[in-house]
Write a structure and sequence with these properties.
three-stranded antiparallel beta sheet; 4 helices; globular
Length: 180
C-alpha cells in the first residue's frame, strides 16, 4: 500500500525484478522538486489522460521531474538498463507481445488481434490516445541531447520496443515503478 494516499498496487516478479503490474496513480502535481541531473528546482506535473476517471485504469501521466520522485518508498523509477533486463527476460524481440495485456489494444486492421499474451502478469495497457502504444519514462538522462530523459515505447503495430529522448518538462508519460 502506498502510505501517501492509501492506493494499493498489483506487482509481479520477473526474474530478480519486482515490477508494479499497473501504472502509478500518485498525484504530485505542482510540487517543487530538484532535477537530479542539474540541481535546479522544477515543478512536477502529473495529470490524468483527458478525464480524471482515466487515472483509475491508466494511472497518471507525469513530466519527468514528477516521475523521478513519484514512486512510493521502497520503489523507484527504473533506468533504461533496468528496462533492458526486463526486455531480455521476456525474450527481447518478443518482449512487447509477452508484456502487453490480453485486452485493450486497438486493432490496426479489422480482425487482426494485437493484444498481447501477458505471460508474466505485467498487464501492459496502451496508454496513448490511439490505443497502439505504451510509453514510459525512465530515470535515465541523455546528456548528449540537452539533458533530455529517455523513454521506452512499446508499439503494438510493430511489435518492437524503441528508445527515444524526450523533453523532461514539456512531455508527459506514464510510469511503472520497480522495487528497490
Amino acid at each position: 500500500m502506498d502510505e501517501r494516499d492509501g492506493q494499493v498496487y498489483k506487482y509481479t516478479t520477473i526474474g530478480d525484478q519486482v515490477w508494479m503490474a499497473e501504472n502509478l496513480n500518485f498525484n504530485n502535481n505542482g510540487v517543487e522538486v530538484i532535477d537530479p541531473s542539474t540541481g535546479k528546482t522544477e515543478t512536477a506535473v502529473s495529470a490524468c489522460d483527458f478525464e480524471e476517471d482515466n487515472c483509475a485504469e491508466n494511472g497518471r501521466e507525469y513530466n519527468w521531474y514528477a516521475a523521478y520522485y513519484a514512486c512510493p518508498t521502497g520503489w523507484h523509477l527504473p533506468s533504461q538498463e533496468e528496462w533492458d533486463i526486463l526486455i531480455k527476460m521476456m525474450g527481447e524481440d518478443e518482449a512487447s507481445e509477452h508484456l502487453r495485456s490480453t485486452v485493450g489494444w486497438k486493432e490496426l486492421n479489422r480482425g487482426i488481434d494485437i493484444n498481447g499474451t501477458d505471460d508474466c502478469g505485467f498487464t501492459l495497457l496502451a496508454n496513448d490516445y490511439t490505443g497502439y502504444e505504451a510509453i514510459f519514462w525512465t530515470q535515465s538522462v541523455n546528456v548528449s541531447y540537452s539533458g533530455e530523459a529517455r523513454e521506452i515505447v512499446l508499439a503494438s503495430y510493430t511489435g518492437k520496443i524503441s528508445w527515444f529522448s524526450a523533453s523532461k518538462e514539456l512531455e508527459v508519460k506514464n510510469i511503472r515503478c520497480l522495487k528497490n
